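The methods section describes the discrete structure representation at length, but only in general terms. An entry of this sort, consisting of the sequence and the corresponding backbone structure tokens, reads as follows:
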Amino acid sequence: SIEPQYNTHIPQYYQISFSMSQKIPKEQWAQVIDKVGGPVEYKKIPTPTPGPTEVLVNIKYSGVCHTDLHAVKGDWPIPTKLPLVGGHEGAGIVVARGDLVTDEDCKIGEAVGVKWLNDSCLSCT
């Protein structure tokens, strides 16, 4: 076990410690949509391994918003990527990171928020 790493910008009640003895499970529970129109099924799926510039976050809280409902119904102009794990805009703890992610980016054990939009071409008119 390592000494707890605390972030001073996180309120005291969100500060956590991380133990090197924690094991990341091979599978995780998720709400999954396998086809447009549903159903939404609660089932085990593989836990992903982060790519070189990615982090793996143990989600503690997540919202399901109207965007998720559009994805289930398939009634928006963007094709639904299937299978789809619903919920986004969550918050959790970084439990693994890719080789190119530095302590300056984020640390193992750090509390983080996950936003819905990861990237944009900025060319919408």
In short: The first strand starts at residue 27 and ends at 33.
